[in-house]
Amino acid sequence: MTPTAPPHHLPLAEPADRYRAMRLVRGFEEQALDLVREGVIAGGIHPYIGQEAVAVGVCAALRDGDLITSTHRGHGHVLAKGASPHRMLAELAGRVTGLNRGRGGSMHAADFSLGILGANGIVGAGAPIAAGAAWAEARAGRDTVVTAFFGDGALNQGVLLETFNLAAIWRLPVLFVCENNGYATTLPAAGAVAGGAVERARAFGIPAQTVDGMDCEAVLAAAAGAVERARAGDGPSFLECRTYRFEGHHTMERRLKLGYRTAEEVAGWRERDPLPRAAAALDPGEADRIDAGIGQLLADARTFALASPAPDISGACDYLYADGLRPRAGVTL
Amino acid sequence: MTSMTLAKALNESLRHSLESDPKVLMMGEDVGKLGGVFRITDGLQKDFGEERVIDTPLAESGIVGTAIGLALRGYRPVVEIQFDGFVFPAYDQIVTQLAKMHARALGKIKLPVVVRIPYGGGIGAVEHHSESPETLFAHVAGLKVVSPATPSDGYWMLQQAIECDDPVIFFEPKRRYWDKGEVDTAAVPAPLHRANVAREGRDLTLAAYGPMVKVCLEVAKAAEEDGRSLEVLDLRSMSPIDFDGIQASVEKTRRLVVVHEAPVFLGTGAEIAARITERCFYHLEAPVLRVGGFHAPYPPARVEEEYLPGLDRVLDAVDRALAF
Fold first, then answer.
1. According to DSSP H, which parts of chain B are helical?
2. For the segment B244-290, what is each residue's pLDDT rounded down to a tens digit?
3. Do strands B2-5 and B180-183 pair parallel, antiparallel, or not at all (unpaired)?
4. How far is it, in rounded angstroms, from Cα A155 to Cα B8?
5. Backbone phi, then psi, for B54, in 5-degree steps?
6. Residues of B in contact with A325 (CB under 8 A)
7. The pLDDT of residue B106
8. Is A123 helix (H, G, I), strand (E, B) or coil?
9. Confidence of residue B74 (pLDDT cuts 50, 70, 90)
10. Which UniProt keywords apply (chain A) (predicted)?
11. Does A330 score more than 70 pLDDT?
């Protein structure tokens, strides 16, 4: 029996909602790490732990119908935009009930019905796709805003700079969100990005600012201004969110013992953890109640994912073409 | 029936697509005011406006990426890459995004993007302006790769590519742009991926596509004077490949020579040779032979006639196949 995922809705309007969303992302990732260790999730993941305030703060500034493109470290974006944690976890575990029926995996999860145009295994590759989608929306007379998430590594990809240019000359409703977590895999951004992130965007005439990416409310405030600008037809904006990933670049990192960060550096950033900061602003006891609810939700998601079957190899070449051409049927491939 | 050049047929085809579907857009370098360096989009911006025939900056990766986003939201972008070698900055977007999104989304989204690429040599250009990179795209699951050889196919196949819900890499044989042929704009075209028997014959099949179809027809004519009857198959599509069509021809002629401008090494001919050997082993009187470019960078204009497979090289292969 293939189980059905329960309906899911993730409000982001209130500070308590945003804390809950961050707790969802954090808990989802912690559980995913367990499932990687247990071998349920094959191949590993790029954990988002530490960066939750960015995904939640930005998505809180968006509305239904807005679109996002995401990255290799995309679980937070996908969940904050409202994807079902049940189906997301099933996707990571390679099950037919996953967002992409287990064929996209961690780096290619997408839910077009929610405006999630896809996580992406190629650094920076989602940016021009966001620009194109934004252009299509503007042409259709809709005031949709498209957010392109990317990391500091993408700042050095040519296609991102090409996209800055196209979005600026065509005044596209795009919000460029750079999650500067300090490292492109293991390369420190400090020595890799000449001239600085916001300066690059400004060189294209794009309004740009740096915000504290460990503070969800600060991210929301900055994103809201940029979104308003885009919605009004005034073109793209750029946000550099200074953040940090508490875990490694990838789950493989522990095994490889890559020593590119000091324990002091990691501990220093952990003191700025966005979750306790958000919890402190809530009524006493509220965070604990939220945590318990999320714990139950994620336990259900785990049960759901584990109870779901894997895809059948006989369908490996399905969906290759829209017109249904497939091997050994009609024209041979 | 109207007689027109391949360039004009492609232009008429684009015009028809722009007229019949408001979601069709043209994008590329110099495609608007200039009408394209080969004038394939001549006059289209004037008639359909700057919003639909768009001059883009020189940023192939950004252009194709933007086209993907437009397609995801309901448009049918037709991207012109100015010369074959210029597609490589966009290769990442084509291979990692355009080709894969449909399968990844389990058919819930469509990617109706056409990437038009003038390709091949013979116009006195140089490296990056004369190449035949079709195999590099045909190898990628999710893309359709086609090339017309005649004005009629140029007219029809381009409209079929634009109407197709899958990404199509549309290779235009640039040295044939100025060749004339009959175009019946009221005809019912054959399916996009069906090979076409360009000339019937009994003794050997020459399979080619794009610019080499004309060469093969000349070879067949020359061979006829020696009493040899060659069939010429215009493959039209390099992915998918119409193996049924090739098989039917080879079961009749029992000999096959595959011809393309692209290097022989791991070219389209290699896949065809392997498949036809599997399918027609007991029909074949000779090994499948291949004629194509050298496994070397495309040479400067002065020596490109040495590089391009011409009448002599194809006839030599025909002789070898018939001598088995």
1. 6-20, 44-48, 60-72, 88-92, 101-104, 134-138, 151-163, 212-225, 243-253, 268-279, 304-307, 311-323
2. 999 999 999 999 999 999 999 999 999 999 999 999 999 999 999 99
3. antiparallel
4. 43
5. -110, 120
6. 193, 240
7. 79
8. coil
9. very high
10. Oxidoreductase, Thiamine pyrophosphate
11. no
Confirm whether A326 is domain-assigned: no
According to DSSP, the β-strands at B53-55 and B76-80 are: unpaired
Mean pLDDT of chain A: 94
Percent of chain A with pLDDT over 70: 98
Judge: B70–A101 Cβ closer than 8 Å, yes or no.
Answer: no
Of B96, B239, B242, the CB nearest to A125: B96
Any idea which residues of B carry the catalytic annotation? Answer: 129
Per-window interface: B 63-82 vs A, CB < 8 A: 63-75, 77
Q: Looking at the domain assignment, is residue A10 inside a domain?
A: no
Q: Residue ranges of the alpha helices (H) in B139-280?
A: 151-163, 212-225, 243-253, 268-279
Look at the block and give the residue holding tokens 């013979």: B122
Does B67 sit within 8 Å of A127, measured CB to CB? no
Residue A237, strand partner residues: A175
Residue B294 host element (H or E): none
Contact A167/B at CB under 8 A: no
**DSSP label at residue A313:** G
CATH 1.20.1560.10 describes domain B196-323: no
Confidence of residue A327 (pLDDT cuts 50, 70, 90): low
Q: A72-76, A158-162, A185-189: which has the minimum mean pLDDT?
A: A185-189
Interchain contact, A135 vs B240, CB within 8 Å: no
Specify the DSSP class assigned to residue B130: S
Q: What is the pLDDT of residues A101-116, one digit of tens each?
A: 888 888 888 899 999 9
Q: Report how far residue B230's alpha carbon sits from residue B212's, in angstroms, rounded to the nearest whole number.
A: 15
CB contact under 8 A, A132 and B242: no
Q: Is the pLDDT of residue A201 over 90?
A: yes
Range A137-162 average pLDDT: 97
Q: Is the pLDDT of residue A220 over 90?
A: yes
Query: What Rg value do the Cα atoms of chain A yield, rounded?
Result: 20
What CA dihedral angle connects B91, B92, B98 and B101, to 10 degrees? 150
For residues A50-66, average pLDDT:
98
> In terms of residue numbers, what domain contains A103?
15-315
The 8 Å CB, 24+ separation contacts for B135-138 are B135/B238, B135/B262, B135/B266, B135/B267, B135/B268, B136/B91, B137/B94, B137/B169, B137/B238, B137/B239, B138/B238, B138/B239, B138/B268
Radius of gyration (Cα) for chain B, nearest Å?
19
Our CA-based measurement puts residue B34 at a distance from the nearest CA of chain A, in whole angstroms, of 20
How far is B156 from B95, CA to CA, in rounded Å? Answer: 26
Instruction: Give the mean model confidence (pLDDT) for residues B56-80.
Output: 97
What is the total count of domains within chain A?
A: 1
Q: What is the CATH number of the domain that holds A76?
A: 3.40.50.970
Please check the confidence at residue A332 and state whether its pLDDT lies above 90: no
The confidence band for A331, taking pLDDT boundaries of 50, 70 and 90, is very low
For residue B240, is the peptide bond before it cis, meaning its omega torsion is within 30 degrees of 0? yes
Q: Where are chain B's structural domains?
A: 2-183, 196-323
- Euclidean distance between CA atoms B146 and B169, whole angstroms: 6
Give the pLDDT confidence of A66-85 residue by residue, as tens digits: 999 999 999 999 999 999 99
In angstroms, the CA B162 to CA B70 distance is 14
Looking at 3.40.605.10, 3.90.190.10, 3.40.50.970, 3.30.565.10, the CATH number of the domain B2-183 comes to: 3.40.50.970
